[in-house]
Amino acid sequence: MHVKEKIVQSSLFICALSSIAIILLIIFFIINEGLPAISRRGILDFILGGEWNATYSVYGILPMIVGTLAVTLLSLLISVPLGVGCAILLAEIAPPWARDIIKPAIGTLAGIPSVIYGFFGLVVIVPWIVAQFGGTGVSVLACGIVLAIMVLPTIISVSEDALRSVPREYREGAIAIGATPWQTVTGIVVPAASSGIVASIILAMGRAIGETMAVLMVGGSVVAIPDSIFSPVAPMTAVIALEFSYASGEHLSALYAIGIVLLLIIMLLNSVIHVMNSRRGMERA
Amino acid sequence: MFSKKVVIILLTTALIGAGAIFVGCSSPAPTPTPAAASAPLTGTLSVIGSTSVGPYAEELAAAFDAKNDDKTSVGVSQVGSGPGIKAVIDGTADIGMSSRELTDEEKAKGLVTYKICYDGIAVIVNKANPVNSLTMDQIRDIFAGNVTSWKQFGGDDAGIIVVTREAGSGTRSAFDELVMKKANITAKAIQQSSTGAVTAYVAGNKNAIGYISYGSLDVSQVRPVAVNGVEPSVATIKDGSYIIQRPFLLVTRGEATGLSKAFIEFVLSPEGQAMLAKHNLVTV
């Protein structure tokens, strides 16, 4: 028995180590490939440069960073109220039979490939935007709407877990001192679950930042700082995907360098999640 | 301590990772065995490259496999002409698909090309757009961003929205070479990374103009414009009067042998050519 225990333990340990090693290798590789492009011009020029032109070897990624942040922010503005609202409904209000219908539906939404979302955006949302507002249709707005639909499942399921993990005593206490169910939800349950809800939002943000195929199809991929939500946009991931297949030399290195910046943004987000979760753990204790 | 969930996640991640590495390492370079004409063909073939040629190659591959009682397996992956040719040079693919002539740099690598058919490039507009004929120079002006309103060509008083393929695409490089000559496509152009996406976008936007392979043209969704007064059709591409056209090539490193040779011969056979002709491609 004891030997079995040891074997299981050490094999799990090896699994954990190998996945860490793989991730470190990937990070090392990307940094190694991307550094030449950054070091030639300096990180500031690279991040704050407004022009991207492979033909003339000008690599500035500010328009893409702005584009990524714009579409991500817009998608969160749309999806957070919807998602958190839906999570509250599922966790606090909906009868079990309704949950049994809604939960699998949301699960399905999470399983749809992003290229399908992209095509849906291209044939439904983009023409709708053209009909309503004119212009190109492919835009920050189109990306924001498509990404919002894509990250909804993440927000809903993680927020719902957070709401469900609020101890029953909190709710009972609130009702005992005369709070209405609505006051209980908004005044007690949601604040108690707030770090979990914020974590869901950050996870969703990570997904929105990393999404490639859908924004490639509905963004328009014009590398310029968008001046309104109706302007075409080229998020960082879209540029990498679009140009990776034929880039070489410094151009390729510059694409890897975009990857480094993306990696930094995602790492930052993950460490925020980590800090939040450990805070949550302390609240529990 | 680890919770059960974390352990499970770590375990699956590690397994998938290890699996990926294992698969990555364990696919040996395919060595085509020269098959005698009478012996049944067996083996696998990887065909990689142009997204313009890809759909037709898929169909040809399926027919080829069926013909050999599925003892052969021809895998087609569509990654673009450039990467496909590169894969053949690197030896990671048996056959490359290209929708453009090779560059001098590529030719120097000892590649052999097989012309399988010709494809026109259709310049497409929305079906509601009244403009139905443009000259080559007008098309160049539009795509270079020199002319920005449809009014100039008898259309609406609306801005022209230019849609282009990404720079690595075979259709794009053919369009650059055949239409743009030395001019650059405007930086304001909307970029789409597939024929389907260009079609879908132009179909949904009244003021858009794009270009796609004639073989993929779906007249129920978009309308091709006449170029220099000539509508694109199999006949006009064949007789050369429709001037925006290019070859579809299969590429091998050195003369094709074994299964590669058998597949290319099948494509060039009357049966294969008939399949291409069915898609409005112009046979060799």
From TrEMBL, chain A:
Which Gene3D superfamilies does this UniProt record tie to the protein?
Answer: MetI-like
The membrane spanning regions, by residue number, are: 12-31, 61-94, 106-130, 136-158, 213-234, 254-276
CDD domains recorded? TM_PBP2
The ABC transmembrane type-1 domain, residue ranges: 65-273
Q: How is this protein annotated for GO cellular component?
A: plasma membrane
Magnesium in keyword set: no
UniProt entry tagged with the keyword Glycoprotein: no
Cell location:
Cell membrane
Give the way it sits in the membrane.
Multi-pass membrane protein
MF-aspect GO terms: phosphate transmembrane transporter activity
* Chain coiled-coil ranges: none
Q: Which UniProt keywords apply?
A: Cell membrane, Membrane, Phosphate transport, Transmembrane, Transmembrane helix, Transport
Question: NCBIfam families per the record?
Answer: phosphate_pstC
Give the similarity note.
Belongs to the binding-protein-dependent transport system permease family. CysTW subfamily.
Role this protein plays? Part of the binding-protein-dependent transport system for phosphate; probably responsible for the translocation of the substrate across the membrane.
Q: What is this protein called?
A: Phosphate transport system permease protein
Q: Which organism is it from?
A: Methanocella conradii (strain DSM 24694 / JCM 17849 / CGMCC 1.5162 / HZ254)
Gene name, per UniProt, is pstC
TrEMBL record, chain B:
User: Its Gene Ontology molecular function terms?
Assistant: phosphate ion binding
Keyword terms = Signal, Transport
InterPro entries found in the cross-reference section: PBP_domain, Phos-bd, Phosphate_ABC_transporter
Residue intervals of the PBP domain: 35-271
Q: Which Pfam families match?
A: PBP_like_2 (PF12849)
Q: Protein name, please?
A: Phosphate ABC transporter substrate-binding protein, PhoT family
Keyword Transport appears in the UniProt entry: yes
The answer on whether this UniProt entry bears the keyword Signal reads: yes
Fetch the SUPFAM superfamilies from UniProt: Periplasmic binding protein-like II
